[in-house]
TrEMBL record:
Its cofactor is Mg(2+). Pathway: Carbohydrate degradation; glycolysis; D-glyceraldehyde 3-phosphate and glycerone phosphate from D-glucose: step 3/4. Residues 51-356, 438-723 form the Phosphofructokinase domain. GO terms for cellular component: 6-phosphofructokinase complex. This is ATP-dependent 6-phosphofructokinase. Substrate binds at S197, I198, D199, R234, M241, G242, R243, E297, R325, H331, V332, Q333, R334. Catalyzes the phosphorylation of D-fructose 6-phosphate to fructose 1,6-bisphosphate by ATP, the first committing step of glycolysis. HAMAP family: Phosphofructokinase_I_E. Belongs to the phosphofructokinase type A (PFKA) family. ATP-dependent PFK group I subfamily. Eukaryotic two domain clade "E" sub-subfamily.
Length: 809
């Protein structure tokens, strides 16, 4: 995710200098224009229109989710939808390669990797004769709307096809290959692109379909390699895909605590060999048993010469004598199941693509667009302007203009790069006046994956600035029991890939333990700043500390909270740490449950998720898992609603659908419990289906954090330390005492859209439902109609897209 504000500090001493600040921060990622937000689409509104969908180029996990969404949203809108099999090759060949899709054709594909309609490279489509054949095939089927899922090459070809369309039709009529009446009925071709690429190399979107799943494969492999590497004290060099984009290597290096990363956008300094060996030797001397070096397949030096894994291995063996192995991950990164994020991304993008096509059908002057992601918001960006910027990256690399290449990659890439460079310091912390200042870290509430990544980055960056970092064990109860310990540099090694809380966590609040006692302990242990990580309980604790400052001067220190809860129910942020890991855990379980249902046939599963009163997990996992319904507290439901859903499922399963999936958040309704819903479905489904109930429980908290939670935790820890350092410098006296009394010195750090945002905790009280532990506004509620549409319910769909201009220099 991009961040609006980042510091301008010197880069790591082992990398070349960063670009000058003005080049990086004067750009605007997108220019938002009035668009589609709040528009409702009724069933059958576009009756008679024809849409086709094809996938081209390299496959990516999540493409099937997009295909499913295009088909089902198209049918919901009244359109006929066609598959074009085998990409542009199928478009050129026609006949059996172009087939009409039904609702059932995309049932059960959302959890599959790859693309069920196939993908192939087509040399014929690059020639005009091939495009003539393709145009004739579309006209014969009455297709004038095309969704293309692929990379920049595929989308460029689609736009050229669109531009040439009038001349292609004219030539087809003149050669009697189509009738003039057919040409008149298909006079305009509308194109919408969806970027499917594991490389995440397309300008104009924060994430491409497949990139998150590829990161999952890389991190799974890296975690597995680390165990054997540690056993034998080996050094491993991992080559990851990405062509000329270093995104996968960069993010994976942060998520696995790699010692070094080579990416094309920021080649190392000319003396990188000496510095690499120096760093590896220093880490081994500090007790590290293994080293990991991440190499993007397009890695180059500053003269644009390739840097290969074999070259690095020979260097390490000859200079350090380390047992060094190379692992080239290859196409395993394209394979496997799509992550929850990619399933939801593909679903949202596919649905929005249909609406974008219908808008273009009404307004012929609209340019071809790409449906992409800006933070958590769907946007439409002019296709060719995005393609042009993407190609400018390759040109900048060829011209050795690496500053420009980094700038063109966008805010998300720069944010990741900046955080990595800050954490890649060679030098260990030295004693300074700041060593007299002590910063506390504490966890409150239920465990959540990503917490340890926050503490690692916060602690190490604090140490490089000269602070002493103190870990408070077992929450505020541990503080009152003097259960604290100083954190050393090596103590946080390996924390990024650890789930749960390395310090331990409890739910006790200061008010329950005694505010006077808590204040006394803060003074006793000489804490000058406090990082609080946790869920709604942590949020309440920080509010209590802020409100008690008037009575207890010991609490007048900078306090920063980072939300970490699988429930994603803390105000002031769109995403809480741990929620992504939980979603992936739930979706994997749902896949297994659906597999069981396919084996037994005609079975409905009722699944209860955690989250308290918050329906985030039930809604987002339902969307990613292909659920028929998800019952949540925020959207009240009655017995009539339940009965209608039972009737709906009876009809579906009687029509040869093999299974049903119903989700319910744990506190959705006091009386309509999971057991009640199970019994209702079991009784009403007699003779049609049987029903089973599953309460997932604490397994949802996950084991190892997802790449997203590792990466987000690392970045938030870095931002929290920057804020803490600034607050201390503002509020420190000449006697080195800290007295922070302003409301802004007690804040919550969250992600709003794609920006890291600091909000005074006391201001958040007005937007909080404390009784039900919920924010009063939740962005994801707009996605709930989409869930029901994908399950063939009658619904009104709220288009989430807005129009956006491409990045401006």
């Amino acid at each position: 995710m991009g961040e609006r504000v980042m510091e301008n500090r010197k880069g790591s001493i082992w990398h070349s200098p960063l670009p000058k600040r003005p080049n990086w921060f004067e750009r605007r990622s997108t220019m938002m224009l009035p668009g589609m937000e709040g528009k409702y689409i009724a069933r059958g509104q576009f009756e008679g229109k024809c849409i086709a969908v094809l996938s081209s180029g390299g496959d990516a996990q999540g493409m099937n989710a997009a295909i499913r969404a295009v088909v089902r949203m198209g049918i919901y809108c009244g359109c006929r939808v066609f598959f074009i099999k085998e990409g542009y090759q199928g478009l050129v060949e026609g006949d059996e390669y172009i087939v009409e899709a039904s609702w059932a054709d995309v049932s059960g594909i959302i959890q599959q990797g790859g693309t069920v309609i196939g993908s192939a490279r087509c040399a014929e489509f690059r020639e005009r004769d091939g495009r003539l054949r393709a145009a004739a095939n579309l006209v014969r089927n009455g297709i004038t709307n095309l969704v293309v899922i692929g990379g920049d090459g595929s989308l460029t070809g689609a736009n050229q096809f669109r531009v040439e369309w009038p001349s292609l039709l004219e030539e087809l009529v003149n050669t009697s290959r189509i009738k003039a009446e057919q040409a008149a009925n298909c006079s305009h071709l509308n194109i919408v692109g969806l970027v499917g690429s594991i490389d995440n190399d397309f300008c104009g979107t924060d994430m491409t379909i497949g990139a998150d799943s590829a990161l999952h494969r890389i991190i799974e492999a890296t975690d597995a390699i680390n165990t054997t590497a540690s056993s034998h004290q080996r050094c491993f060099i991992l080559e990851v895909m990405g062509r000329h984009c270093g995104y996968l290597a960069l993010v994976a290096s942060m998520a696995c605590e790699a010692d070094w990363v080579f990416i094309p956008e920021l080649p190392p300094a000319d003396d990188w060999r000496e510095k690499l060996c120096r760093k590896l030797r220093m880490n081994r001397d500090a007790g590290q048993r293994t080293n990991t070096i991440m190499v993007a397949e397009g890695a180059i030096d500053r003269q644009c010469n390739p840097i290969t894994c074999d070259e690095i291995r020979k260097l390490i063996v000859s200079e350090l004598g380390l047992d060094t192995r190379i692992t080239v991950l290859g196409h395993v990164q394209r394979g496997g199941l799509p992550s929850a994020f990619d399933r939801n991304l593909g679903t949202r993008m596919g649905a929005e693509a249909v609406l974008a096509l219908m808008d273009a059908d009404r307004d012929k002057d609209l340019p071809a667009c790409v449906v992409s992601l800006d933070g958590n918001q769907a946007v439409r960006v002019p296709l060719m302007r995005c393609v042009e910027k993407t190609r400018q990256v390759a040109e900048a690399l060829k011209e050795k203009n690496f500053d420009r290449a980094i700038e063109l990659r966008g805010g998300s890439f720069m944010s990741n790069l900046w955080t990595y460079l800050k954490l890649s310091k060679i030098e260990r912390p030295r004693r300074s006046v700041m060593n007299n200042l002590r910063l506390g870290m504490i966890n409150v509430g239920a465990p959540a994956c990503g917490v340890n990544a926050v503490m690692r980055s916060f602690a190490r960056l604090a140490m490089t600035k000269g602070y002493t970092v103190v870990g408070i064990h077992e929450g505020f109860l541990g503080l009152t029991n003097d259960d604290l310990s100083e954190i050393g540099w090596g103590d946080v090694r390996g924390w990024v890939n650890m789930g749960g809380s390395a310090l331990g966590t409890r739910r006790d609040k200061p008010s329950e333990l005694g505010m006077q006692l808590v204040a006394n302990k803060i003074k006793q242990h000489n804490l000058h700043g406090l990082l609080v990580i946790g869920g709604f309980e942590a949020y309440e604790c920080v509010i209590e500390l802020a409100e008690a400052r008037d009575q207890y001067c010991e609490l007048c220190i900078p306090i920063i909270m980072i939300p970490a809860t699988i429930s994603n129910n803390v105000p002031g942020t769109d995403f809480s740490l741990g929620a992504d890991t939980a979603l992936n855990e739930i979706v994997q379980i749902l896949d297994k449950i659906k597999q069981s249902a396919m084996g037994t046939k005609r079975r409905v599963f009722v699944v209860e998720t955690m989250g308290g009163f918050c329906g985030y997990l039930a809604t987002m996992s339902g969307l990613a898992g292909g659920a028929d319904a998800a019952y949540i507290y925020e959207e009240p439901f009655t017995i009539d609603d339940l009965r209608q859903d039972v009737v709906h499922l009876r009809a579906k399963i009687a029509d040869n659908v093999q299974r049903g999936l119903i989700l319910r958040t744990e506190y959705a309704n006091k009386n309509y419990t999971s057991q009640f819903i199970h019994q209702l479905y079991a009784e009403e489904g007699k003779g049609i289906f049987d029903c089973r109930c599953n309460v997932l429980g604490h397994m949802q908290q996950g084991n190892c954090p997802s790449p997203f939670d590792r990466n987000l935790g690392t970045k938030l820890g870095s931002k929290a330390l920057d804020w803490m350092d600034e607050q201390i410098n503002i509020n420190i006296s000449s006697e080195h005492t800290v007295q922070a009394i302003t409301a802004s010195s007690c804040a919550l750090l969250g992600i709003i859209r794609q920006y890291a945002t600091f909000t005074e905790v006391l201001k958040l009280k007005a937007v909080t439902d404390f009784k039900h532990r919920l924010p009063r506004e939740e962005w994801w509620l707009n996605l709930r109609p989409l869930l029901r549409i994908m399950a063939k319910h009658d619904s009104l769909y709220e288009s989430e897209s807005i129009m956006a201009g491409v990045e401006k220099d």
